[in-house]
């Protein structure tokens, strides 16, 4: 794909999936803004690819605004917003519940995506761009070992699907990798190796990311699992309401909530 002149903003761009995506996009001619709290490593990645680094704590709304402003100031606009910053939580419910750990996980993994899209959207609309958010397989299936992580990643998937309908001019998709070779699995690596769970190379996740970038779909959640080709997850349509006589309600087959809100 020819990306010369396109502008991409990547949160969590100093390492792992974010850094690998930055390198891939830059190799195809894109201008990349690397946004992260790790200034040393983030600047190193940006310098390596001829991009720009901006310090960005995704839990702070103004930092996301500044990152988008940097893309516009340095390169003239924004075509791709990759909201990738995230952490594992290890947050359980019950006697060991840690409120601060819970709030931090939700702030980074969910709020960070919301803030990022909020500030990127006006620029993406100008250029018919796209936003991709890193969710997880944990957002598509029960995750008993880290229910809070599963909750915020499921919310990211739902957010991107909803935004696709709200803003059809901008492509909105989620990237849902399984256990990938990133810092998030550091505390899990030995257990994963003991049970024979394959660890997905970051390059495979970036391949799926590029399939989204190069595609035409919107409102999709692309899974990345070892030994399987990546593709959009097939969501089953939920049951819609019926009229008293059992017939379908035409408006409900679309988006009844939006219809009701418009009426108000």
General description of the model:
With 264 residues, this protein is α/β, with parallel strands linked by helices. It has one domain: Rossmann fold (3-Layer(aba) Sandwich). The protein contains eight helices and eight strands. The chain has helices at residues 16-27, 39-49, 61-75, 99-127, 147-166, 189-194, 202-214, 256-263, and strands spanning 7-11, 31-36, 52-55, 80-83, 130-134, 171-177, 220-224, 231-232. An eight-stranded mixed sheet has the order 3-2-1-4-5-6-7-8, with helices on both faces. Helix 4 (99-127) links the parallel strand 4 (80-83) and strand 5 (130-134). Helix 1 packs across helix 7 and helix 4 (99-127) runs parallel beside helix 5 (147-166). The chain is globular, with a radius of gyration of 19 Å. The model has no long low-confidence stretch (mean pLDDT 90).
């Amino acid at each position: 794909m020819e990306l010369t002149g396109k502008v991409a903003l990547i949160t969590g761009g100093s390492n792992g999936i974010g850094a690998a995506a930055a390198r891939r996009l830059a190799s195809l001619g894109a201008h990349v803004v690397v946004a992260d709290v790790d200034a040393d490593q983030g600047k190193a990645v940006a310098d390596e690819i001829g991009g720009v680094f901006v310090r960005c704590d995704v839990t702070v709304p103004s930092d996301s605004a500044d990152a988008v402003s940097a893309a516009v100031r340095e390169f003239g606009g924004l075509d791709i917003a990759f909201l990738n910053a995230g952490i594992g939580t290890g947050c359980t419910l019950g006697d060991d519940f840690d409120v601060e750990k819970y709030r931090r996980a939700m702030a980074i993994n969910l709020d960070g995506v919301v803030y990022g899209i909020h500030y990127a959207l006006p620029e993406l609309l100008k250029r018919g761009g796209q936003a991709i958010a890193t969710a997880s397989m944990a957002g598509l299936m029960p995750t008993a070992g880290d229910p809070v992580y599963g909750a915020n990643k499921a919310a990211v998937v739902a957010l991107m699907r909803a935004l696709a309908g709200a803003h059809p001019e901008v492509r909105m998709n989620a990237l849902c990798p399984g256990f990938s070779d990133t810092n998030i699995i550091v505390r899990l690596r030995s257990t994963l190796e003991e049970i024979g769970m394959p660890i997905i190379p970051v390059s495979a996740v970036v391949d799926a990311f590029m399939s989204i970038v190069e595609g035409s779909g919107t409102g999709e959640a692309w899974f990345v699992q070892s030994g399987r080709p990546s593709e959009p997850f097939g969501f089953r349509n939920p049951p819609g309401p019926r009229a008293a006589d059992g017939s379908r309600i035409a408006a409900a087959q679309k988006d009844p909530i939006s219809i009701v809100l418009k009426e108000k």
